[in-house]
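Lab notebook, bench 4. Still working through the backlog of constructs that have no structural model yet. Next entry is a single chain of 96 residues. Request: give me the structure tokens for it.
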Amino acid sequence: MLFVYFALMLIAVTAYVSYPFWGNWRALATEDPEIAALEAAREAKYREIRDAELDLKTGKLTREDYDKVNSELRSDAVEILSDLDEARGVEKSGNG
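Model written out:
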């Protein structure tokens, strides 16, 4: 009887501790791969922008080179954000 009680307690504790992780698998299974790819591209582009800023501060890039690279990177980032909004179905507002 003690063994059965111990086994039931072990199952209950395991279920309680692991419960927060149960929902993540369903969310991953229903996630749109296009949106996931665009979010990854967005994060990569943000990382490139930060790297360029660091390269300017450390002297690896001149101000002229930085301005050119930064402009290209930010233009790419805006395009990725636009694609991400489109994939999510967000409508653009005409308040501009």
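Notes after review: Residues 32-89 form one domain. The radius of gyration is 24 Å. Flag for follow-up if needed.
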